[in-house]
Amino acid sequence: MSRNSPNPRAALGITVLVLLGLSLAPAVLTRWMSVGHSPVVAVFAPLSNLLDRMASGLRPPRPIAGDDDATREQLEASIRDLEARLLTLRAENRDLAALVEQLGRLRVATGVETKTIPATRIASLVDSGAIELRPGARAGVTVNAIAIAPGGLQIVGIVTDASPMTSMLHLLTDKRFEPGLVVGVVAGPDLMIESTVQLDRLPRIQLEPTGRGTLVADAVNISIADALSEGDTVRVLDETWPRSSQLLVLGRVTRIEATDEPLFKRVVVTPEVDPKRVRSVLLRMPEASNAEGAG
Amino acid sequence: MNWLVFAVLTWFAMGLDLGLRNVLSLGDSAIAPRFTVVLLVFICIHAPPGAMMLAAILVGLLLDAVSTVPEAHTANPVMIIGPFSLGCMLAAYAILTVRSVMQRKSPFTLAVLVLVGSLLVEVVRLTLLTVRSFYDDLALEGAAASLGTGFGVAVYSAVLAVLLAPLLGAVRRPMRFQGQSSIGFVMHS
Question: Which positions in chain A touch B81 (Cβ < 8 Å)?
Fold first, then answer.
């Protein structure tokens, strides 16, 4: 061995230390080395690919266990089911995002800070045009809280009584609904409302429940009625109603009918959900610091 | 040792490893023989110490380079240099210490040493990867399952070694194991 040749033991020791360091170094430090994987594999590819092709003929890919027609159909059905659920979840996600955006805009437009409590129907009181909800006052529910349908801004009714455990919700479409009359503004088909909309310029109609699941404005001036279209949304803008209800949705214009009076038309508004059939609602009420302008 | 023949044989062995892994694997398991380890053990039995250690490092580096470990969350493959290399070096050193008392030309010697060498390679590799997985995001099987697979690979490789022994015996002469190492790397023992 020549005098200038490296000390083999030292070289071996250094090699072991370097390899040990590389073995135990975190991936963030050694990730760059992965670029060498493909070129090294490519060196052996001519032989390995040839052998792999030949071998695949000797041992064809084995189907997964139980891969008969029934299992395949079952798996395909599962895939379709998962795809359907994915689409549903995406739609729900889109709706929720829209709702959050609407609620945010509503807060800006009305300047009212509200809190929301989810409530579940526990009984239908058909005779009194109301439904019984849980929870009640103990959970923070107050009289005049506005119930809206989940996933939207549609008003379902107003809480008229709040006992410790339950609360009574009077339905919007019931004829005995108090306050029976409500002034709404017709804000076009878009459910979104911009904070820059000048509310006092929107056409106003006075609605009352018909008892048949709709609200009606019997005598709408023809100049206002002609500005309306079927499908327009009608929102609360009534100082006699609780502040937390302002700009919430009463429904959509479904019919504009002529009346005996040529200067007036009849406008029928239908809620987007049937208040009698909702199983759960969101109760909106002002934050404790806000004074409620209940009607 | 003739390094050109070594290079050709290593290329051939690695090609067999990569190309025949699917067809030779036992069922759906990852148990498949390692031709490269059989070749390395064959070299370790016959080559001078320095050459065998260098061969172990080269074969180990190649095994590290073609093997990747997936990250647990992203499943991105990570190439880790070292585990196979260190395992091969330890296996080479172990064979160096016992080969003088073994019948080098016997196929069963090759098989036994392949079994021992493969086990050492697998144990070193699994130990290093397990240690690394404590702080790195690596997707590893459980230790028992990995050791079971490693043992299966070792046994399978040993069986293969018995079959390959005549072929490897034929390349002993072109390998010129007793000749001067062409790169002058000599290990003091």
Answer: 19, 22-23, 30, 33
